[in-house]
Amino acid sequence: MNGHGKSPLVITGFMGSGKTSTGKAVARRLGCDFIDMDAAIEKAEGMSIPKIFEMHGEAYFRTLESELCSRLAARENLVISTGGGVFVNPTNREHFKAALVVCLDADSREIYKRLRDDRRRPLLTTDDPYQSIVELMDARHSAYSHVEWHLDTNGKTVDEVADEIVGRLKADAWPA
Ligand code: S3P
Predict the structure, then answer these.
(1) Spatial separation of the C-alpha atoms in residues 98 and 92, rounded to whole Å
(2) CATH no. for residue 82?
(3) How far is the CA of 170 from the centre of ligand 1 (A)?
């Protein structure tokens, strides 16, 4: 790098893997800016994610996500938490090619435990949310496998996961 900074740290993974809370904790530890993609989209659209899905459909939301990826990819010294579907789209993966990406992993039972009472995920607002988690995880497995750095979050606190990430970043001298 040129010594003025590094392309973003991107935190991705399935819904409920802890991307937002971990991203905030990592950014705080590093003194970097933080952006949560879902929150940024909700703010720009002036409505919640479930409302965007309801009013405009999923395809519209995916377009907003891709546009945001392309805008954020060039930013330096920034921690980004993606929505769980961002890395499914090869174009988005391409946008973040120069970024340092970490994928947070958790098994389906742990995800279910974390999201059981959550009503903010339209893709899990189904008759059988556990089955939806299993199926969607299976469908996304190959997309997430494009990410080199995977971190197991099962049974770990946000602080433990953030410490692991920061430890690895320090070893990589991120940001410059
Ligand atoms: C989605 C995940 C959500 C949100 C939207 C779609 C997905 O974000 O972007 O509901 O496709 O996995 P979280 O992963 O933060 O829940």
Answers:
(1) 12
(2) 3.40.50.300
(3) 29
